[in-house]
Batch of 3 targets.
Target 1
Amino acid sequence: MRYLGLKIGLFTAVPFFGLQAADVAVYFQAPWPDGGAYPPLAVAAFELMEDLNYEVEYIDAADVNANRLGEYRMLFFPGGWAGGYNDFISETGKQNIRDFVSSGGSYMGMCAGSFFISERVFWREGPGEDTEQNIYNTRAGYTLDMWNGVSDGAIFDFQPWNTSAIGCNLFPGARMVDLTIDQELVPEAEASVNVLYWGGPIYRPPGGKWSNEKIIARYDMDGFSGHEEPAIVTFPYGEGRILMSAVHPELSINESTCEFFDDDEPIVGARVFLSHLVQRMMVPVEKPELAAVSGVRLLTFETLLGMRYQVQSSVNGSDWTDYGEVVAADSFDYLIEIPVADSELQFRITMID
């Protein structure tokens, strides 16, 4: 078990530039808090990647803005202050992030890193539902917009940002919380995990309905407004994918002594769960392809859960006719078998209102 005080001194010795030859880029921009990423959270993530035997480097806003993202497979934006990310990363840099992910890269945003990519942010600092709530959207500089939902935090009746947990007055807003894990999505994980909550949001989809997000974990906080609400979600973005985490499994807090620590050597506790998520995000995304199997061709379309679709075919690409029956999507991909006799046709899938 390594305590936080052992790490802060080490952090200042790390060179903050990308060599573009590593697997993972962990974002950090000095100084704190202006730069966005809270140093202990960035260090904890960096060391977990090393423990998982990934090549990892720090990058800063200059790297992002100049598109020095090289051959990284994943960008990791730690918790901290999303406003700092917005201040240092230019509009060009934000487009570079979009391009990186849409071209097949992965993005993991922890707490502030997920506020950063949200279309809208609802933020209240104090306890009580009537606490003043600030709303940030594209007009307030939150223009990355890689997720079109609302990140709503902090959870006012569980652990308000401006109050401290019992026994821990040094770090307002910090408290441990249980999560319930969807083991169909992450079967190697335990059914429940205890992690650090520190001002994170509830993820609210546009219009109150999930589209192509998968909910990996929900808050287990019986008696509070966040109970069973989404705490970790993932979704595709172009050819890549995004994971948003409202909590911090990379670091924990002892609520009696008010000491931050990560469990290491071996990896145990919440970091085991985070390691599962990291390893899944590092697996290359499989691209849908046509393939010949037993006299048929397989065609894959990306779909949204619960929506209805119609496959259509065309000889010339302009005159389209319905092909088969209406499809009710029960997964994120729809696979159909095309007889070889129809293999010269063009196909598309359209959503039905």
Note: The longest helix spans residues 39-51.
Target 2
Amino acid sequence: MIDLDAIGRDLVAAHALRVERTRRRRRTVRAAGFALAVAFAFAAVAVASDIGPGLQLDPTKWTILGRGSTDDARGEYVHAQRVQDGSPSTFIVEHDAGLPPYQAFLLHERTRGAADATSPVRVREEPGALCSAAELTQAERVALTRLAAFPAGTAADATKADVDAAVQAAFLGNPCRGLEYASEQARLVYAGVQPRILLMEGAR
């Protein structure tokens, strides 16, 4: 006799694991930039593809310059230098499974802040104070409204410029730190990369 309950539990567990792995991959970012003789290049954020669980970098590709963590290691970061060309990068991962959306945002900001404070290159900082829960919700709503102009499932990178511009315009004159995060959250949900439940409740 087939145990449908057991199969159901296995499917739910497998899906939960896949979502967590997806979120960890999404939260793994690289801030890359080159130090110049007179001024520092601002760091650009991109997905890191050659990094393992727990920020284990390939030693044939990266030299570790330093590392740290926040929130009892829920947020972790590693500063490294690419062996091939000497360019510095910072890798960040946030284990935010189970956190309410705004708490996940706060974890992101604490981890990013700690990483930026010890970064070997200057990083671009968003202006303004930290976004409140209401402001983050509003920013996600604006982002989703702009995304409606694109076909559902459009890749997050393809909508970044338009959605970022719409969110920034909505907060023109009164920006807060976290608008880029809100834009990314909305774009990833719209692209089908992560579930809508990760958005702020008022933006779902």
Note: The two ends are 41 Å apart (CA to CA).
Target 3
Amino acid sequence: MKRLILPLVIFMFLISSSSYSQFIPEIKSLNQNYKTEKKDRADLNRISSKQSSIGFNGGVAAIDGKVGYAIGAFAEIKTGGIMFVPQMNYWNQEEQNNFEIDGIGRKYFGKKGAMPYVDGGLGVNFYNTYINSDVNLVKLSIILGAGIEFGKLGSSIVLLVDGKYKLIINDSYDLGNISCFIFTFGFKFPFK
């Protein structure tokens, strides 16, 4: 009986080590998949935090050579390599004001730190002036701009500096087209 125990123990050891060695590549593969999946999740979280954000801005508006203030709110939605930026802006100067709803395409250059960008789009304007008479217009505008987005301030706040040229298309002979330059700084809050 003792003679059978030793060969039986050796046989059991060989079978168990053989079966374990067959699973080693699978265990390594599972471990590698887990690490890859964990990295992919981290990358996805990092990317998704840059995909969408909301924010606000404020600054000055120069409307036909007269200076006033400007405030606004916006969202950034990533659509491929270009961001879609819907915004609502209000600017005011003593004799005129405008509320506008814009749709802008934004292209960033760079991936870290201070990232410059360019803008272009269209807006719908609700323009009021009191210069000669009370005039209320609903007109289309063309928007061109550029800016710089700075790195995160803290964990979830991003600073931006922005400049835009807006041309409100007006076919009225007494006013003509209305041009303005708007310079703002703002903060955006990326979604996580």
Note: The first helix runs from residue 2 to 51.
